From TrEMBL:
GO molecular function: DNA binding; DNA-binding transcription factor activity
Keyword DNA-binding: yes
Keyword DNA-binding: yes
InterPro entries: HTH_MarR-typ, MarR/SlyA-like, WH-like_DNA-bd_sf, WH_DNA-bd_sf
Keyword annotations of the record: DNA-binding
Name of the molecule in the record: DNA-binding MarR family transcriptional regulator
GO process annotations (BP): response to stress
Domain HTH marR-type span(s) in chain numbering: 1-97
Protein source organism: Lipingzhangella halophila
Length: 107
C-alpha cells in the first residue's frame, strides 16, 4: 500500500489493508522494528500518525516485487489466459493509479 505514496496516514492504511486501526498499528510496529517503515506525524498536526517507507523498506519492496508478481502469475495462470492476465494487469494498474494519487507528505 505504501508503494505509490511512500507514506500514508495510519487510518487510511488500515482501511486499504482491511484491518483495524489497532491491527495496522501492530503491523507497523513490527515493520518498524525491522527498519522497513517509520512512524511520522504531519508537520501541521502531530496527532495524525503516518507510516512511511524507509530506504531499507523501499529496497525490500523493490526486491520482493518480482517474486510477488511471479507468484500471482503462477496462481492465476491456471485460470486465466495471457490476454485475460494482460487485462487484469492493466485494470489493476488503473485502479492503483486512481486510488494511489500522491499527496503531500510529512516533512
Amino acid at each position: 500500500m505504501l508503494t505509490a505514496l511512500r507514506w500514508m496516514r495510519m487510518q487510511e492504511l488500515a482501511r486499504r489493508c482491511f484491518v483495524s486501526k489497532s491491527g495496522i498499528s501492530q503491523i507497523v510496529s513490527q515493520l518498524s522494528e525491522q527498519d522497513l517503515v517509520e512512524r511520522q506525524g504531519l508537520p501541521d498536526n502531530l496527532r495524525v500518525a503516518c507510516a512511511a517507507l524507509t530506504p531499507k523498506g523501499e529496497k525490500a519492496l523493490e526486491e520482493s516485487a518480482p517474486i510477488f508478481l511471479g507468484a500471482v502469475r503462477r496462481h492465476f495462470s491456471g485460470h486465466l489466459n495471457e490476454e485475460e492476465i494482460t487485462h487484469l494487469t492493466r485494470i489493476t494498474k488503473k485502479l492503483i493509479t486512481a486510488h494511489g494519487e500522491p499527496v503531500e507528505g510529512p516533512g
